[in-house]
Amino acid sequence: MSYLVLARKYRPRSFEAMVGQEHVVQALANALTQQRLHHAYLFTGTRGVGKTTVSRILAKSLNCTGPDGQGGITAQPCGVCDACRDIDAGRFVDYVELDAASNRGVEEISQLLDQAVYKPVLGRFKVYMIDEVHMLSNTAFNAMLKTLEEPPEYLKFVLATTDPQKVPPTVLSRCLQFNLRPMAPQTVQEHLAAVLAQEQIAAEPGALRLLARAARGSMRDALSLTDQAIAFGAGALAEAGVRQMLGAVDRGHAVRLVEALAGGDGAALIQSVDGLRALGLSAAGTLEEMAALLQQMAVQQAVPGALDAGDPDTAVVERLAAALAPDETQLLYSIVVHGRGELALAPDEYSGLVMVLLRMLAFKPAGSGSAERVAPRPAAAPAQAVSAAAARPAAVAAAPALRVPTPPPVARSPEPPPWVDAPDENEFAEPAGLPPPEIPEPRPRAVVATVATVVAVATTPLGDRWTALVKRLVEAGAISALVRELAMQSECIGFDEARIVLRVDRETLRSAANVDKLGAAITQLLGRAVALQVEAGTPEDSPARRDAAERARRQAEAEQIIADDPLVKALMAQYKTARIVPGSIKPH
């Protein structure tokens, strides 16, 4: 007796046996129970999700006569009457399946429609099922429009397609359309477990997870891969064997790569890629596994506890999710997904994989990590007050400027929209003690105000010496590009006649080439040999932080001058919804 493949042996023969398409099953079952039958149905979806299966079950439901031969239209076909058995066997004369991929011309469709004038021979209804209907020619579509719109009462059309966008709107408007969805990996895995239990074949849960993921939503593909895995494993499904058959990358490799990215360890990344190359594993498969891992991490970060507790990988995902900030996880996922499309453009797939990983390392946010590590530190000292009498508004220019937003107000009473002035009986009254200002027309815009926040830097004597030295290097044009960035972002933690010790957090700046160039520039400027040592760490007092603090201080001073100006106060008192335009104040 010939072997019957699993995809055919376990094809559902009733609506109850279908998995993953409950929305379609419910709609069709209700229509059959209530006898509200449409004359044309269109089933859409990717390969292997059950379009043909639903069509055959629908044909059995329409023609079932029951075990005693007295049954009628039903949502639960008996499966034992002549009509049910013949439809399952593909020999029911009143059920016609036409493959439009090989019968796409007007002649084939016309020949099929010519038979529509004859009543069913054995069944209650004639059912015409046209698979891959989008492959029909335009003339074939036009030939079937009239019959599709007003068929005889005994004729039902069932159309199936993987590309509904290519079906003419005139055909879509004549059909009830049902979209069969790709099935979730968990649904596929549970069905495979049930099938293998009936077949009495041992299978490891990890092997079923790999098969379900490789099926990509197609139950037919999952069953076909299972057949292949059974043959590969000599009657048993082991995770290692299925992984070898699929060429899938072990989750452990993806975990090690994400751990290296979380720790900013470039050497570990390159070492991991060399290991993948030695094992002959696919670069595309590596990025695919990383994308799946990062997606699960993002879910865990957004909704803690949402992952399957029974999955042995969940504990690892939870640990990695705590090691990265949510925004960094999103960034890494985006780079991985886009990087998969770039592998074909690289000199070879492993060099492409290296560049994708290095890109993730290069774009790693400074000081990123877990929520505890990325929490902002409190300011070292309060901002100094600035006298408003030191200057007039003419000392600042209205132009876009960088600002640090203040925290949102709490328990703030609702205000009218900024373009509507609330009625006030004293709206045009003069402010006490001030002459009435001259207000030009149209009235000034009402917008939201802001005041810059100054973050002080705790300066050190070593920082003073290093900042002065960096300023001399920049003015002399001795450093540029990444070497200048290394000098600006570094904190000096040691400075003597023969050695300078710096601290910087960005690994790309700590490269040996940058350190050597900066050391040579310092030696040339000072006229003596100076050894430069760079350590990893977060700088507290660097030239860049000092520059940022000074810009914020000057911005806050300029905004305070405008806020304290009498004319500005008068305008804001007269127009209740008036505010200073955010970012419009820029110090000279």
Instruction: Please indicate the percent range of residues in DSSP E strands (runs of 2 or more).
Output: 5-15%
Average of pLDDT: 82
Helix content: 40-55%
Q: Terminal Cα separation, in Å?
A: 92 Å
What's the overall geometry?
Answer: elongated
Q: What is the fold named in CATH at topology level of the largest domain? A: Rossmann fold
Tell me about the largest β-sheet: 5 strands, parallel
Fourth-level CATH superfamily of the largest domain: P-loop containing nucleotide triphosphate hydrolases
Number of domains: 5
- Major sheet strand order: 2-3-4-1-5
Rg over alpha carbons: 36 Å
**Number of alpha- plus pi-helical segments:** 23
Helix/strand structural class = alpha/beta
Give me the CATH architecture of the largest domain, please: 3-Layer(aba) Sandwich
CATH class of the largest domain: Alpha Beta
Q: Could you tell me the number of beta strands?
A: 10
Q: What ranges have pLDDT less than 50 throughout 5 or more consecutive residues?
A: 369-409, 416-432, 439-452
Task: Give an overview in words.
This protein is an alpha/beta fold and 588 residues long. The chain folds into 5 domains: 6-179, Rossmann fold, CATH 3.40.50; 185-246, Helicase, Ruva Protein, domain 3 (Orthogonal Bundle), CATH 1.10.8; 251-373, Zinc Finger, Delta Prime, domain 3; 388-453 and 549-587, no CATH class; 461-540, DNA polymerase III, tau subunit, domain V (GMP Synthetase, Chain A, domain 3). It is built from 23 helices and 10 strands. The strands form 3 sheets. A 5-stranded parallel sheet has the order 2-3-4-1-5, with helices on one face. The protein has a 3-stranded mixed sheet with strand order 7-8-9. A hairpin with a 3-residue loop joins β7 and β8 (499-504). α14 (283-302) runs antiparallel to α16. The radius of gyration is 36 Å and the shape is elongated. The N and C termini lie far apart (92 Å).
